[in-house]
């Protein structure tokens, strides 16, 4: 696959990328080189090659989901100007 100036300008327009007229030739050449490299990679036979790494065989480490308040609610509300039953109290904001 080869890109020409018109295609590059169209893709840049659709992607909302501003490309100066002086950069179009350079960018077209660079993108064509990338496309050639991708085509070369597609020609490699990998049918009998197993992946070296992957996440499909990995399992998440799990732990029990326990409710834990930390046991120090009195320390948390110790600096509160007003508190009721280890809870912060705030002024009413709805009239």
Helix-strand blueprint:
Elements: H1 5-14, H2 24-42, H3 73-76, E1 83-84, E2 87-88
Antiparallel strand pairs: 1-2
Number of strands: 2
State the helix count.
3
Q: State the oligomer.
A: single chain
Question: Low-confidence runs (pLDDT<50, min 5 residues)?
Answer: none
The portion of residues forming beta strands comes to under 5%
N-to-C SSE series?
HHHEE
Shape: elongated
Mind telling me the C-alpha Rg? 31 Å
Question: Can you walk through the features of this model?
Answer:
The protein contains three helices and two strands, in the order αααββ. The chain has 95 residues and is mainly α. The chain has a domain at 5-42. The protein has a two-stranded antiparallel ribbon. Strand 1 and strand 2 (87-88) form a beta hairpin. The N and C termini lie far apart (68 Å).
Top keywords for this entry?
mainly alpha, two-stranded antiparallel sheet, 2 strands, 4% strand, 95 residues, 3 helices
Task: Give a short summary of the structure.
With 95 residues, the chain is mainly alpha-helical. 35% of the residues lie in helices and 4% in strands.
């Amino acid at each position: 696959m080869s890109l020409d100036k018109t295609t590059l300008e169209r893709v840049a327009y659709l992607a909302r990328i501003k490309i100066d007229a002086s950069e179009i030739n350079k960018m077209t050449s660079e993108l064509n080189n990338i496309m050639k490299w991708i085509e070369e990679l597609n020609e490699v036979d990998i049918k009998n090659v197993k992946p070296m790494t992957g996440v499909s065989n990995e399992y998440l480490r799990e732990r029990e989901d326990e409710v834990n308040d930390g046991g120090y609610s009195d320390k948390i509300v110790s600096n509160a100007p007003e508190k009721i039953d280890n809870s912060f109290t705030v002024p009413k904001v709805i009239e």
